[in-house]
């Protein structure tokens, strides 16, 4: 059913119910609590009668958290370019648009359920594991491919990392977020969307293999080190969901609760390869979980933490979890064997530990993290857990990146008036040695190196944006490839080898 057919059939239903309203009467009704009818008539065909999403994204307060109300109103009025979302300014008047905007930011009147039955019935397998040829349909170094997520029009570009040329561009689910996760051999990739969709994609055949919706509002996904399982972490509902990585069949549904029955959102989940486990931190309950899979079921080991944890990071041996406290004022180091907190880190600016990186400095391992609320990068000795240097930056940052073979680490200044700048840090002097401003007035953010650490890609985070290729040594720009709000970039080799300068 296409969009118009879907709208037409909904209108017919509402007509039969005597609920189809037009013109000024519609405005009156919208004002007086009948916005739900208006929603059903105008929006439900794409966004679902219960606002859980369909062809369009879910329209619930949790899912809209990052969109300002005024922007939502603008989208309803004008539409969203390059998407199915048409403008409604000729169909609805200002009051109706305002009423609809208010409506979608209100919690629904009934509790939304996304449990085992809903997850199972959402699954679609278009190409079962083993049904597609094993030969790639293109020629390139399969270990030096990049995936670039373009959030402007919800697409992904596959890029040849030797030639630095796009190979293929394909549509993604709405609002992919977090790093896509590769299978250990780099052939398959799993994408997670904020609306809870997991997509398995065969890079060799350039085809979507399977999709399943794990939750209503999802945080991120992790793939086990052996490539056999995918674990999804949700905000809504309070759950984690285990899948067989082959065809995304659901194996286990894990309500996220403590012994007293209080439930929690999940801050994030990551694979911990040397431990053959997953580690998750809970956002509303002071616990971190280690999850192993036995007989295709999840087994949870709980660790009580001294504080609520946001995003986190590991030391290279996965002995310690380094977590950001939710109060935004400090970090904690938790020994994953004992579950005890072994150190506290003075990180007052809400560290973004998920984008921390590590390197060797004067014979010891250090890690560096930007901060969401301070123009600073903290560099921490991973033996003593002391902050050995705080670099002042031109504003709060989001992402950091480097590569074992590169002398430099790159850090953006995502927030504030200097968001168009990027700092380059010398990893041996711990000084900012250069600040670039590649496209004045446009956010420059998120870097990823190629497998050799010789070139890197930087995003110009704009609908009329680009990725810029730099020489990692001379720091000279080599070329620009136009893209639609490119966000993260993910190199196959760096990811599957857990390269020290990239995110995991
Ligand atoms: Fe992200 C990764 C949390 C907002 C772009 N972000 C992550 C991860 C977490 C996280 C836990 C790691 C998941 C993984 O890779 O498996 N992000 C959060 C937040 O809590 C925050 C601040 C608020 C929120 O809305 O959720 C947030 N993130 C954003 C954005 O606004 C960004 C800039 C644009 C967007 O797409 O929403 C954004 N986040 C990203 C990107 C990654 C990411 C590109 C992957 C980075 C990587 O290199 O791996």
UniProtKB/TrEMBL annotation:
The keyword Oxidoreductase applies. It comes from the Bacteria. One of its GO terms (molecular function) is electron transfer activity. Residues 1-27 form the signal peptide. Its EC number is 1.7.99.1. Residues 30-108 form the Cytochrome c domain. The keyword Heme applies. Keywords: Heme, Iron, Metal-binding, Oxidoreductase, Signal. This is Hydroxylamine reductase. It comes from Marinobacter nauticus (strain ATCC 700491 / DSM 11845 / VT8) (Marinobacter aquaeolei).
